[in-house]
Design brief:
This protein is an alpha/beta fold and 492 residues long. It contains 15 helices and 23 strands. It has 2 domains: 3-263, Aldehyde Dehydrogenase, Chain A, domain 1, CATH 3.40.605; 268-457, Aldehyde Dehydrogenase, Chain A, domain 2. The longest helix is centred in the first third of the chain and has 22 residues, at 108-129. The relative contact order is 0.14.
Length: 492
């Protein structure tokens, strides 16, 4: 990785950011500071959108959709533009990664792959899907022709979080555009910069004016306005359960728009005594909870361990946590970067304090570190003896805090794994093929890893069960959110 180039990009001033509506940069009524978690200093400002700004963006998106330059463009034309966008993201990958790291603190090695790397691949995947997903001819009786058309829904509202804004943004924007829709995007106020840059890239690559609009600002204002707007046909969201519930209320109060939610998790990582390689399980599991300082929706935050290997694996996890290199996320050698904001760091600290009060045993970590930098850093933390009713076993921390709980039987492991309101991801470590398949079937989660943790590409869906939400990103299934089915019933 080019450290000289990284340092040069990190030294560049970031100008004040504006709203992107109708293919033009527009001023908002006010501005919000962007504070870098690397050193606690203000990096730039973003526009603080009002309800009127959101309305203007939605109206612009609707006009672009009705105009048909994108919605009625030939699939081959949409495909060409989306490939150009993917090419441009790849060409500017390091620039985008460094900008994102300065904004949210993800370590550069992960950011480069997970943000521009994933986003480019996502745009390319859906570019290729455009002319390969078609309608249907129904198996009707002779003399009748039944056709099922797939039509774009119209205006799609997109609200994304701060942990991987470019990656998650692409997961939602690319299939929405591939289907022919217009988009109004509201990034998190904590991390908006790479998505504003994406809007610039899309315009340069030939996406028609008004097809992608970006309104930055507070969730309680801009996000609410987007959720309540009657001109939005579909709303997709990744974030907290509390916000997800409010968005469902907004659909009832507005136009009954379809709302798809990905609401995080409290994912169980189940290790049996017959795991093929306990040291490897510890190494991969440590990355699964501590990379990006635990700010990953699928993070393996609950380690459920068969009792006969409980002490050994807990010791290995503590060793891995202590050996984790935490620091400046722009250093390619850093393994875990900063917590994205002071507010999030305070939340993490609150969970740690509660865990100790409830009787869990702190094995390692548990405190803020590197305070001399001015940034927001927290030590990788391991708690043992976490009971199923402890807060640390039930609620999403979204930080580098691991809860370890022993079990004795496979049935107990299943009960513990399913003992939360969430159901996003899980993992099972075992050398027994039959047990692996039994656990896949028994665990209530949208993704179940076996003898690994994390890792998947655009070919498979990511989505949750229970209170982890109802929407799926990635794969061809994601396109279903952004189309309306229309039946044509023809008497011949």
């Amino acid at each position: 990785m080019d450290r000289v180039r990284i340092d040069a990009l990190a030294a560049e001033a970031v100008p004040p950011q504006r709203l992107f509506i109708g293919g033009r940069w527009q001023d908002g009524a006010a501005a919000m500071p962007v504070t870098s978690p690397i050193d606690g200093r203000d990096l730039t400002t973003i526009a603080d959108a009002t309800e009127a700004d959101v309305d203007r963006a939605v109206q612009t998106a609707r006009a672009a959709f009705a105009g048909g330059r994108w919605s009625r463009a030939a699939p081959a034309e949409r495909k060409r533009v989306m490939h150009r966008i993917a090419d441009a993201i790849e060409a500017r990958a390091l620039e985008l990664a460094v900008l994102g790291v300065r904004d949210n603190g993800t370590e550069i090695a992960m950011a480069l792959k997970a943000e521009p790397g994933s986003a480019a691949g996502t745009f390319r995947y859906y570019a290729e899907a455009i002319d390969k997903v078609a309608g249907e001819i129904a198996p009707t009786a002779p003399g009748t022709l039944g056709l099922v058309h797939r039509e774009p829904v119209g205006v799609v509202g997109v609200i994304v979080p701060w942990n991987f804004p470019l990656m998650i943004g692409a997961w939602k924007i690319a299939p929405a555009l591939a289907a022919g829709n217009s988009v109004v995007l509201k990034p998190s106020e904590v991390a908006s910069l790479t998505l504003l840059k994406l809007a610039e890239i899309c315009a340069e690559c030939g996406l028609p004016e008004g097809v992608l609009n970006v309104v930055t600002g507070q969730g309680a204002v801009a996000g609410q306005a987007l959720g309540l707007h009657g001109g939005v046909d579909v709303l997709v969201f990744t974030g907290s359960g509390g916000v997800g519930r409010r968005l469902l209320e907004y659909l009832a109060r507005s136009n009954l728009k379809r709302v798809y939610l990905e609401l995080g998790g409290k994912s169980p990582n189940v290790v049996f005594a017959d795991a093929p390689d306990l040291a490897q399980a510890a190494k991969v599991s440590a990355a699964g909870i501590f990379r990006n300082s635990g700010q990953v929706c699928v993070a393996g935050s609950r380690l459920l361990v068969e009792r006969s290997v409980h002490e050994e694996l807990t010791a290995l996890m503590a060793e891995a946590a202590q050996g984790m290199r935490v620091g400046n996320p722009l250093d390619p050698e850093t393994q875990a970067g900063a917590i994205a904001s002071e507010a999030q760091l305070a939340r993490v600290q609150g969970f740690v304090e509660t865990a100790a009060q409830e009787g869990a045993r702190l094995v390692t970590g548990g405190s803020r570190i590197l305070t001399e930098t001015g940034g927001s850093y927290f030590a990788p933390t391991v708690f043992d003896g976490v009971a199923p009713d402890h807060r640390l076993a039930r609620e999403e921390v979204f930080g580098p805090v691991l809860a370890v709980t022993p079990f004795d039987t496979e049935e107990e492991a299943v009960a513990l794994a399913n003992g939360t309101d969430y159901g996003l991801a899980a993992a099972v470590w075992t050398g027994n093929l039959s047990r692996a398949h039994r656990m896949i079937g028994a665990i209530e989660a949208g993704v179940v890893h076996v003898n690994t943790y994390g890792g998947a590409d655009s070919t498979v869906p990511l989505g949750g069960h229970k209170q982890s939400g109802n929407g799926h990103d990635k794969s061809l299934h994601a396109l279903d959110k952004f189309v309306n089915l229309k039946t044509a019933w023809i008497q011949l």
